[in-house]
Specification:
alpha/beta; Urease, subunit C, domain 1; TIM Barrel; nine-stranded mixed sheet; 14 helices
Amino acid sequence: MIGSTKIILGLVCALSLCAIAAAQSDQIPAQAQQKPVALVNARIYTAVPGQATIDRGYVIFDKGVITAVGAGDAPTLAAGCDKFDCAGFSVLPGFIHVGSQLGLVEVQQVSATDDRNEFGSFHPEIRACVAVNPDSDLIPVARSGGVLNTVVFPQSGVVAGHASVMRVDGWTSEDQTLMPRAGLVVNWPMTEPIVAPWMDKSVEDQKKDAAKNLKEIDTFFERAKTWMLAREKDPKTEGDLRFENMIGVLKGEEPVYFVANSPGQIESALLWAKSKNLKPIIWGGAGAASCVALLKEMKVPVVIAGTHRLPGRRADSVDAIYALAKKLSDAGIVFCIATGNDPSNERHLPDHAATAAAYGLPRDMALQSVTSSAAQIAGVGDRLGSIAPGKLATLQIASGEPLEMTTEPVVIFSEGRRLDFGDRQKRLDVKYREKYQRMGLLPAATPAPAPILKPV
């Protein structure tokens, strides 16, 4: 019996290791941009608020930075500049996903590939970038959907740790990190009692739990503030790694992402943040339409965690989530759109923005919700999110109009580097096409297609 158990455990370990090995991307990161690149005759969606689409224009970038954008013919180009004719294609910024788990988890059923959770409830010293796996096989899949930057969130506990702004290309997690500390993530507790058949706690017990949870958060922040003031008065005050990583938040220099969905959660988080002079951002936001006045008064941005989900409350209309972006836009509230899903669905980010457009959000604002608005909320709006001189050349060339289901990126650049556009699905497509060609179920392979972009 003991021998059989050892054999079974050995097989389980072996299979787990196989899963881990299979989950490692073999793609080679791109080299830094070697010479200037000019994209000409393109339809350009700059994602700059208030700026119209350029029907025929050019984008020039060098050393990873955009140097010129305009309509009509490109100016005289420097010697050695690579010039590509993009007639029939669109050029737009790379999509930015705020609240991603990309690189933190590969196979949810294999715990060795899941680094989203930490022990304990309060760990502000955690930085998500440290745990990101740069060889994740899900990263190429996401960038095949046009997602070229992410804001990765730690997940567990009450104070989960610091979010990090990441690139989708690089040899190491350090290479991929654009901003290691982009905001503190706080999972705000439920404040409204739930009355449902599956809830095994009474209303009174739920209220007691909510009061207890809120007091624990308040106590932790007060302790951190007390330590910070003591350290300012006496630099020899004993160090505390957790509290050291709270200083930027307590001084209002770094935002706090409050993960909150119900109106009660959102309102209590905002009022508590106001009492502490914090800089809040709401992530989740399903009930944000009921809190418009407070959000507008406090000028708090909202990250809508997915439009492909059910309404949060029985009384909500069936299109409450679909139309939420339009309601926030009409109220003048800064917002962006995320997926709220696991990393394997990261590539569907533009589809969530498209759904918001289908329910009344202007198309230009829908594009901005996953580009320039997302960059602004993430604190990198001066570098990413739009096509303008001085911004990083992180952009995509797409087959058609942005956010359409039939539109796909065909070439992607990250800070001027042209990235490998392959991914696991494309490799499997080639493999199984070959299989069925050999079986005579598909026509024989045709010659390789000509390059999508031709030098001119």
